[in-house]
Amino acid sequence: MPYPRRSVSTSSVWLAAAALALSCFAATMEAGAQELDLVERILGAKGDVQGGALIVRFPRTDVTVAVRDVPLPIALGLVSWTAWKNMGDNTVVMGDLVLLENEVNPVISALEEARISVAALHNHFMGEQPRVMFMHIEGVGKGTVLAEGLRNALSKTTTPKQLGAESPQAPLPLNTKRIEEIMGYSGINAGGAFKISIGRPGVISHGMEMTASMGLNSWSAFMGTDDRTVVAGQVAMTAPEVNRVIRALRNGGIEILAVHNHMLDEQPRIFFLHYWGSGTVEKMAQAVRAAFDEVQGPVR
Question: 80-122: per-residue pLDDT in tens?
Fold first, then answer.
């Protein structure tokens, strides 16, 4: 005698499929987290997660840099950093390495061996002593292999390998509330400078949307006093925005130090401008705000 057929509801099939998909997703996420843990161990430094990426920083505390006899705090851009994001089968790494001139080519050779691409090599300052170069990098592959390659590259420099515990930040002799009012964004005491950083959504690279933590940001760092303020930073721009930003900064008496790329295959194309200015805190904040107003909102 034949057994009666049991009907399987469509909802049951969907629930089973959803459970399987969630299980696979959880396993992928766990594997990705484990790989990023290994990246930290290989690099010998702890990172922090921002915008879905692991950020590992290497401040160049071994080098004292001055511009026009003004010593630069680390917060004005003297930090090598790498951002790691697991994409399932692969991990993407992007970053910016702060290098002395004699370190540049040994690092390039080590990166080439590791199949990590050099996306750009250029200045961020003018007239600094000693001369400092900035190398932007990107790579796709197994995270542990990329981390080993980056560790080897950093070994060609005098970059400190371990991050020490952060010391308490001394109060800044700046009216930071007034800077925030003028700029329209909140900032932080980054150790010797008051730093404001904003992201720019809408840019795709390596199949993912770039975030502020992965380098797609505009930032400004203020140091000194209210009467004698130095400001430095960068602005992330599309091609039509470049000269509007230049005009805004020059109208405010701020110097343009460089305009260039940081990435290789981003869509749409993004350019980065680096600047330096000195004057009263009001004047500097107003000039930077005028430039930031030209690049507000998602990239179109």
Answer: 999 999 998 899 999 999 999 999 999 999 999 999 999 999 9
| Backbone conformation region of residue 261, classed left if phi is above 0, alpha if psi is from -120 to 50, else beta | beta
DSSP type of residue 267? B
Burial class (CB in 10 A: 0-12, 13-18, 19+), 57: middle
Spans of all domains in the chain = 28-166, 167-300
The 10 Å Cβ neighbour count of residue 203 is: 22
Distance set, CA 14 to CA 100, 138, 186, 290 (Å): 58, 40, 46, 53
For 167-300, the fitting CATH number among 3.30.70, 1.10.8, 1.10.150, 3.10.290 is: 3.30.70
Q: Which of 206, 203, 229 is nearest to 217 (CA)?
A: 203
Instruction: Provide the whole-model pTM.
Output: 0.86
φ/ψ (deg, to 5) at 254:
-100, 140
Q: Over the stretch 218-229, which tens digit does the pLDDT of each residue have?
A: 999 999 999 999
